[in-house]
Batch of 4 targets.
Target 1
Amino acid sequence: MQMNPLPDSVRPAVTAKALHPVILVGCGAVSRLFYQPTITELSRRKEARLVAAVDPVASARHPLIERFPQAAGVASLEQVDAPEGSLAIIASPPRFHAEHTREALARGWHVLCEKPMAATAADCADMTRAAEAANRVLAVGLYKRFFPTSGYLRQLCQGRTLGRLQSFDLQEGGPFNWPAASPSFFNRRETPGGVLLDIGVHVLDLLLWWLGDPASFDYADDAMGGLETNAVLKLRYDGGATGRVHLSRDWATRQRYHFEFENGTVEWTVNQANALTVRLNGLPASLQGTLVNEARVPALTNPQCFIAQLQNVLAAARGEETVRVTGRDGERITRFLSSCYANRRLLDQPWLEPAEAARARQLSAAS
Amino acid sequence: MKIAVIGAGGFIGNRLVEQLHLGSSHAVVPIVRKPWRLALPARFDLEWRLGDALDAVSLAKALAGCDAVIHAALGDPRQIEAMPTALTMAAAAAGIRRVVYLSTASVHGQAPAPGTTETTPLHTSHAMDYNNAKVRAEQGFFHEVARHRLEGFALRPGVVFGPRSRWITDLAQDLRLGQAWLLNGGSGICNSIYVDNLGSAVLSALTAPAAAAGPYLVGDAETITWRDFHHAIALGLGLDPSDIADIDRLPSFKRSVSAKVRRVVASPGVQSLLPFIPGGLKRTTKQFIAATQAAPSPNAWRLPAAPAPRITEELALLQQCAWKFPHQPATDRLGYRPHVSFKEAIARSLAWFAFAEGRA
């Protein structure tokens, strides 16, 4: 991902004295594509420095150590030499998140844990308790909360600017192309969920943040003994709003969130951090544009929001800000995800032969 | 039998995995080249494997323990030509005798001469590189099959459509944008085959007697015109088929400079020389090609153009087809029966499309 430097007006750079030690745990695709340019930018701004890259696979560590030669490349957390108060970014495979988070907290480090926070709500609660006991920050990597559009939509959903929210239709995903180094992403014994656990975590986080818990929901996916690649979630809220979420790793969705309010509609293209399309009822056309501040400065872009997330966690570690996405938030999302899986049913697939559909139902029910 | 499907992440490969796992007593082993192609096969609790269809060693490892292999991998023309060698070498190394290779009816061209059958000699003078590559690939396949003493079946389907097919999604888009078209009322023959019918043909080839090995044309039971195909999709989408543009003349398909250069560069002879060409010369050539492709500056004093038919060379050739490929040899020697009617096939395809678009 190409990351543009943050405009210095966003947050003034702190002095070199505040250069915060950061440990990157897990050197897979998310570390290479997102955290490497983020830490590069925060190093340039003298806000953070990478002190260690941790991964059992030396070839995975190599690109990061090449980029940050002052950092130590080590195979395990216990080999890291970093002072208390450092920040550990847990970007290891999800099944290690809970273990690595607890280990980092025990060393007196603050933690930013990549999504999904953990496999179960109980693990999330345990991680949060450990952070509270250690008096350390525990944040969850759900950077779409930092999108200016996310905040804008939250205000629309919770306020009355466009009237009451009536319905929404969220479609996100497309053919899977994440450059995962190993097939563990698709191994049910190593990864507890499919598309819902992957991109669905972001969607559910935003929905819970915008609208709170739904009064009821219906969840269906196409796992037939393995991991789902298509998922459909239908929600109903107190007050009457209804919604549909369609996630896919299979086929290109519209990559669009569509909201119907009493007085207009709003459309958001997935991953557009600072642009929206708004249509006011009664007017002949939609307005499509970039969010800007009073001085007409465009709001943060997608990569800049990823950087802003790390800045928020570092500021929280210094006691200057509160964490935007907390361990409690992660726990709430995980609990809702677990409810979806616990109540799942097989998606209707009327394009299958009747005998195949019956067999699919058997496999789905048995899993 | 334990059956390997190479290219299990694609449109046809995925459907074969579904058919084998959900509708047969065979065990299926999906094989893909990269981990991220596992999204569809991983919906099942299957023993999937990684294997490169261009690398016989990697493929042989992936085929270990299998009794038969189906090859449904895609690629560019160079890859298409190289794959049969890797496939047959790997099958032989893994001790597999039965090999089913997905060829195409396009080895006869998109608009074959009336009377064309499996026995019609193939040539490599087709307008489209894909056709020529598939001809060479199929010929290479049978040559290698004979060398390794395998039982090789090559199936030649025409227009394969169904869930996740571009023939459904691209046409739907063209219809909605007013870019769909029919030549002379759409009277040309669409040699369609619903993907489930192709799956039936593959299953038949897997269990046919070894003496039946060879190439087979396969298709749907009905003779379908392009008018039938376009109208069925339009009606299924709630669109008026009479809005489809009817044309009586096709444009000429002159290759652009860059396309000509790409074609020359892709040829095996030039590929073998590329390592010896200086980097500076390569860069200059690329810059020259890019310059010839520069889009003209928009004219502010122009109104947006009305939608025009989107005429591709492939579809232009296909719509000139006047011959329904017979599949009697497949019926007689393999026991092939296209069990899904065209009407049902369209209904299933549209049901999937409605789901994919979030309308169901």
Note: The two ends of chain B are 37 Å apart (CA to CA).
Target 2
Amino acid sequence: MIGTVLRLELRRSRSLAIWLGIIVLAYGAFIAAFYPVIRDNAKLIDDYMAVFPKGMLAAFGMEGTLSNHGIFFNTYIASMLWPIIAAIAGTILGTRQVAADLERGFIELPLATRIDRARYLGTGIAGQVVVLAGLSLAVVVGVLVVGTVVNANFDNARFLMEVPVLFLFACALGGTATLLSVVTLSRSITAGVVAGGLLAMYLLDAVSRLQADLDWLGTISVFRYLRSTSAIDQGVMPLGPMMLFGAMAIVTWALAVWIFRKRDLVA
Amino acid sequence: MPAIELSNLTRRYGRRRGVVDVSFEVAEGEAFGFLGPNGAGKTTTIRVLMGFLRPSEGQATIFGHDCWREAPLAHRDVAFVGSDPAYLGDMPAAAQLDVLGHLRGLKPGAWRRLAERLELDPTVPIRKLSRGNRQKVAVVQAFMGTERLLVLDEPTTGLDPVMQREFLALMAEARAAGQTVFLSSHNLPEVERCCDRVGIVREGRLVDVASVQALLASHWRAVNLVLGSVPAKDVFDLPNVRVLASNGQMVHLMIQGEVNELLRRLAALDVRDVSIATPDIEDVFLGFYEDQTPGAGPNVAAPAGAVR
């Protein structure tokens, strides 16, 4: 039964995964193609960037020279593309099995069979993990493949170390969306809270970087932990952020399953 | 052990009522019709029965298993189709029926014979199917297994008359195979033909549970007489007869229940023509809602469907 539900969820995720996969691959490839230009003109770009307030650059994750691999990846992928992709994928996947299927009326069909609710949602969460892992890998692979073609000299192993960080960040969003979906039984409320929460955290992180005495605000923003450059710059896995995102994902998914077991299903 | 047992079932939505103190049993092998207008509490009852909603008070069981606490166990013996089931638009019916069949312990393709019988093309994505064809998918889903209990919520909505007849045939086959049926429907003739007993729900409360025959017999039937001569004044003085209009040789009266005494008296008269309108379940059903008094009112029985 679990295999059946997993296959169903993966089949339903196919077109989302393909389209988001194409986007992250294409974006990563496009950005990587420009890296040699940035590297070869690092001095010019740094002089140009110096015109802007430091705080503003920091707010966009640019704390150093763009020719630095870690800053480059952080600026164009971790701070910009990935939060948007992860939020879209996490929200769609996290709300689909409960809130969306309840709104469209499909949920009654599988739940009227012998599968119990915990297994049903748990299997759906496994489907989320597979899709989010694939997207996390795709975003880095796109950068590395084109980086190799244009002689960007990216360290493949260190870039691939970013995959689990991006993956766990997406899982944290997927878990949050799943939990909100079970609690509110509403796709729109869940999407609004996830998007609004992310935007608020982004602003908190930016403000904390602009204003030294408000630095503590950044500690409650997930973006501070997502922007670690230790993997690419030093070859050190950012275990702290990974554990934080992983714990968020596990706790929110577990809570979602626990609540769903005894949740009235009324659209 | 009854197939379905509801004991003082109450379900509220905050301060709004859903169903209040509903109790009835459905015996194994029985076909039970569940009638009521929109908002009466039919769907709430079915949702509680299927374990989608927790009862506020009371209990619902299927073959002895609590519908809320032991839902997966209860579902082992149930095939359920909700009203207007929303299948996944992008997937063909075949794939979805296989998934749902597998979750019910059926082999792949268990739906094939029924799909052919109902002339359903299972390869077309659901979103490309008409309303009637989508409903065929639901009918196939309901009957593709051999579960002991069928819970069907408005299963024939959108089906054409030919397919409605096929549905009735499937119901008859299910019953012959010993399956129990719990049928919620607005199609009252369908309930009349399929079911042994009916429960009528109004404003969240069960107002009557009776066999279809008993329910029909307890209601008023119209009798129109054309006589060869003016009858004696007291000829229709019977406790279960009301004369509504008498124009000499033409008499319009209503009778409830036992008809033998009336027929005996008519036999002594010069009767030129007689029509007796048998009330159908629609009359009975409307009687509950129009008169607000179960079984009351000679205006209940319309002369439609008169037998001569």
Note: The longest helix of chain A spans residues 2-40.
Target 3
Amino acid sequence: MPDLSQPAGSRAARHQVQNEDLLFEISSPGKCGYQLPALDVPAAELAHTRQEIQYFPELSELEVIRHFTRLSTWNYGVDTGIYPLGSCTMKYNARINELVTRLDGLGDGHPLQSEALSQGALRIMQLLSQYLLEITGMDAITLQPAAGAQGELTGILLVRAALAARGDARRKVLIPDSAHGTNPATAAIAGYQVENLKSNPGGTVDMSSLERQMTGDVAALMLTNPNTLGIFEEDIHRIADLVHQRGGMLYMDGANMNALVGRSRPGDFGVDVMHLNLHKTFSTPHGGGGPGAGPVAVQRELSPFLPIPVLATRPDGSPRLDFDRPRSIGRVRAFYGNFGMFTRALAYIMANGCDGLLQTTEDAVLNANYLRKKLEDVFALPYPTPSMHEVVFSDSLQAARGVHTGDIAKRLIDYGFHPYTVSFPLVVRGALMIEPTESANLAELDQFIGAMRAIAQEAQATPELVTSAPHTTKIRRLDEVAAARNPVLRWQPPPCASS
Amino acid sequence: MAYPTNFRYTTEHEWVAAPAAGAKSARFGITDFAQHQLGDIVFVELPQVGASLVAGQAFGTVESVKAVSEVFAPVSGRVTAINADLVKSPELLNSDPHGAAWMIEAELSDPAQSAKLMDSAAYEAFLAQQEAAH
Amino acid sequence: MLAELGLPSVDELFSHIPAYCRLNRSLNIPPGQAEADILAYFKAAAAANAPGFTSFLGAGAYHHFRPAHLDNLIGRGEWFTAYTPYQPEIAQGTLQSIFEFQTMICQLTGQEVANAGMYDGSTALNEACMMAARVTGRSGLVVARSVHPQYRQVLRTLTQFRDFPTAEVGFTPAGTCDWDALRAAVSDSTAAVAIQSPNFFGNIEDWEAAAEIAHARGALLVAVITDPVSLGLLPPPSSADIVAMELQGFGIPVGFGGPYAGILASRQKFVRSLPGRLVGEARDPDGRRGFVLTLSTREQHIRREKATSNICTNQALCALMASIFMATYGKQGLRELAQHNLAKAAYAAQACHNAGLEVLFPSPRFHEFVVRLHRPLADLEPSLTQAKLIPGLSLHPDYPELGHALLVCCTEIVPRAAIDSLAALLAQR
């Protein structure tokens, strides 16, 4: 039973943290951290070269190592503890994934090598594609998009091309008000007008609104399933049928696939096009904000429009790149996509296998429901509908005491946890969006529950403790308003400095 | 904060204040309710002098740390002046949205248009209705 | 746990999913494998991907030596398993390193502000053009044909359903942008003029000439750079309005095409039109300096359909690799690194010339050049493969007018002996 009398307690013990200046402040002229081999060819000259790079850092190798090591100690990662950000699926990033990505031939392979010399890389892409199609139940796939948002854009461009080919160009896209911000931004970039679709009191798509709004001018409905509230769209059959009857297409944002893998396949419930986030469901590391990868899987009708090159198969089963695709929408980025993420995702799928993938999904959903059960008496639950891999509470019970979701999140840091997602989705006032993933054992879940319950008590008894949190970190709450009013986005040398 | 009785208000929370009844030019701004919704204002984007204004169309934006809002022209006209103090100190919008934080001055194409907007009593009733609906 | 939930089995948690949505069989994927077996699979794949060959390929992805401590540092779990720094109090490591990164990019490019990264150079070019359109209120785009063909394809794909009339301008026999043709193509409805230097053929373009032409008609100059190593020696595009740069050359593995990272750098006055993440300096109540994501209201999670872009990720880990690379080489090191690249390519071009090959384009160049072969590349491939050499890129598909032309890249890692072998094999008749 976690010790609740001592909030900072055993989890958030302070440790020695060096205050580390900026590279430019540590720099000294003449220091260097590299050594190039002697030149084995004659030196060459250029008529016009640059002046020296003013104020650029000069450090020794050890100074570089200490700098980046110290900085890292101020971060919290999945390796540190559970990271319950909703819809981010912060799962374990296995080290075997890192190892296989760096093998000679793969880590240093050049994308423009001839096909004959690239069979290894192409086979990896072929196998990953096969597994992702099996998982999603779709017919064809592109691995090219660089991230989820780019996958969304690719998907909507495919819809646009397919409808144009039918001679039925339309102008609008429907998006639920609970959707992630990339969805409407994407639709706008693809040249569509965005129309909002209201949710019903259960938090899912309101069928009568859809009936009314799904007209002959709507190209697609962009759905996340389960949605951003962690709720499965139980009317998905009727939704898909309605969209199709009216000549539109169903796009699915696959961000929440961690609730479905092995249990349900979007291709089986009427989805025409969807993207996957390899950096969520398939464990590729978040790296502090990227890189990701956003493959797009489609039903047969959309396959001719896929970005070039398309991975095809020769009669003997070996992979080749097909550039002869006259109806393709073109390229969405240079080369073939984030190959380094393909190796990692494939290793993840292989390590888990059909049994492990199913177990992962079940554990993720079980963990979220356990948290929901243990916290629903102290935090308001805006929707009674069953949760899948994530649960969304609201801060309404605490707001009466002036404590909001952002404050609770900051106080959670004092208990040694990374916060959940604050204030999203927007349909819930003061949302707390919690996704534990399968990468959490029972002891950790109980500690998290203990911390949240303690904070709920503090919100009633000593709200200032929560509203002025965090108290135990390297710095306290930063003045983001001043930072936005007068943005300082780079270091500048002090006024009297010489270069 | 009281809502000045000589202002007219839109459902998008803009106000227009003509100096005297039937005057050909007026000042525009956003209401106390709007600034409160947005939070600490960090940036205000205003049009150029001479730009034309169409009732109901956006003429600028107001930005806080957590949101950006477009500002819509309450009535039609042409911009004759912009509030340079506001551009320099956007936080004025939080402290004095109905006075020192006026946004633009405009020559009105149809002075009668403002009469069709809500007066202060109607606007306050409108706000009360919004609160109840939540 | 199930007991706590009062449920007989895990299946109950999925019972609300309609029956027709449920997968009632195992996934057709083999059961979970041991690390040793997974490693064996990948090793076999790696062996079929020309390991140990010496590569003369460039064309947007460059083989540079990666310092030994790079992967070791970024391999720390606090770097690579962390998320986007939305909670600054526990992400000061990521935030400070991005602030340093933004600064170094400004110093290198001669610009005033830089963002925390885009997906890659090709999408950075697209974002730069969209930004120019927002800033100028115009929609015309003029792009040099000597800009990377794949970058131009991406621009076409991403703008195809919106109204962005795009004109391409050719190159002279010297292999650089045709300035007269450019002047004729730029008009009062041009938002952006995009020029790459070193261009796709490796030739160095004149940033000032390009800027003068763009600015004369009120258009913005977008400077495209595909190897940041070039900035160690070449004049930076200070007269450009927006720089769209591929970061891969700075310590990011070539890795069969990705992940890479791109950046946008520009003037302070355009900062609110800049897409992607930005880190700014801030103070806490005790006056301590810290760093925080700022100007987020431009981004998709707040502005939604009015966002400057739909981008969410910022390739943070790749940008970190680049930061460590830049900090390690430093001011003098980057210059020396660039000089080595220049020297190797100059030697290689000379060796090809001595072997009887025509080296196209008598212009100053950096580390890439174009030779005309006597025979199609396909005929030469067997002997090249036998010698474990990857020769370079055939330009025929994108520039058929150049005949059997080959784009050769020679970086600091290529040994002299390999260059000599290459020249001899390429010159075969």
Note: The mean pLDDT of chain C is 94.
Target 4
Amino acid sequence: MEPLDQELDESELEIPTEPMLLNVGPAHPAMHGTVRCVMELSGESIEKVDVQVGYLHRGFEKMCERGTWTQVFPYVDRCNYVSPMLNNVAFALACEKMLEIQVPERCQWYRMALGELARISDHLTCDGAMAMELGAFTPFLWMIKGREMVWDLMEEETGARLTHSFGRVGGMAQPPTEGFKENARAVGRHILTIIDEVEKLLLGNRIFLDRLENVGIISQEDAVSLGWTGPCLRATGIPYDVRKASPYLKYGEVDFEVPVGQTSDCFDRFMVRIEEMKQSVRIVEQCLARMPDSGPVNVDDPRVILPPKQDVYNTIEGTIQHFKIVMEGLKLPAGELYSYTEGGNGELGFYLVSDGSGTPWRVRIRPPCYYITSGLERVITGRMMADVVPCFGSLNMIGGECDR
Amino acid sequence: MAKFLIDLVAQKFPSAVIASHSHHGDETILLEAASWRAVAQFLRDDPRTAMDMLVDLTAVDYPDRDPRFEIVVHLLSLGKGHRLRIKTRVGDPEGESVRVDTLSDLWASANWAEREAYDLFGVTFVGHPDLRRILLYPEFEGHPLRKDYPAEQIQPLIAYRDVENIEKIAPFGRDEGMPFGRQTHARGLGGPEEESN
């Protein structure tokens, strides 16, 4: 019997050679609603891609220049909206570094505990969405259930599920509630159970592994050159974590590991996040164990902290102090400063320029996922169309932070 | 901590360094715009500095100064763990001729960061491979993060984009990724000269 492909070898087939242009997003669910990719396809493989962001640009940096330093908090909340507490804490730390004040120990542990819970919620969302986009809906629901627990705890603490605006320069808006430690421990236990269940569901799943392993590989040099930080950089094997490299708050005093990947594919990025959640639970437990049950949360500094309401309504000094902080804003010394912390996606930096008045001159938010998204082009060029979904999912592009 | 970086740059490029300081522990060097790229390349390639990551690039507008804009870059060396901020000043008080050499071929992260600075501040990075707006749309008028752009300014409505021969147009023509999308390059590279007409 003649081989079937004989005819193909001998005659010239007329195959359309014009590349196909495909527009994915911004409304495509796999693009998370805020990114558009214009792809040039040859068959199913991507020859060229143009990644366009900016569909969620709301001009935060401009808006920050109109109010007081305290009024920046709601904006940073809406940057990375799956881990707003990390942004709150990061901005508060930047202002405090400029004022050269340090918050009391109780507040530091409190900030760390809340921040790590926010990181868990960030990673749960990313990994859950990644699994869902590959068709695994059950793990997504389980992880969102875990995120709900974190958000319920946040609501209990701050009064808001998502946009807390809970940080303050020099402290927090409220001290921890009475049941905080107990609730947070319970949440930590539940999260570990959920991660365990999710691992059992996914890590033995042929379809899931095939779509992630050896997909979306990026070299260490490329990742560093692109300015990648956070889980995506650690998945390439570089153990750079701001919490370890230049510890802030009390990160120098707690034990945790920095998980790194080996092949820097999508699966590594998925697993780095899973491991980080376990480490975060560890950190939260240590924070709760070491956080004092009583004591001040805010610094005793009348320049930045509002006086107690009792004084505001009953003494003229308190009224004036309150009025000045609210109307003029707290004043940061003139100068410039770059403060960086480990956000959900990597190095979250704030470059602040103050002219000494109560209004920021410039608030530059260094969004980690802006730089990560800029690497999407390199990750997916040359891959198949279907690989875009896991690649994009594993980068954890958060529209609010990327576009600001 | 990283004071030696300032000394090293001052030694190597004595005429390039205008000023330096270490406020709040951030080592900062203010450079001449002409040697911007050379110093950046030195900082990246020299084994003593080894700045392998450009963490952030942004601009700050000081409308009363001449030169008006400050380009601010934060560098990090992952291996050595030190950081450095380098700055340069460009542009006249009217906001024209805001030009500085690109760093996008030294660090890939500068690509989008420079596009953002171009978009929001109107800084032209000479030699950038693909300088077009990134966060805003191409028809946007002005550069919103300049201090003379009022925050409440309303942009004119834009008409539907009319793209001729949409089926026939070659995809990815002259540095243009989007035949049916943002047409920034219809008028050239979008530098200040082209923008005025």
Note: Residues 149 and 186 of chain A are 9 Å apart (CA to CA).
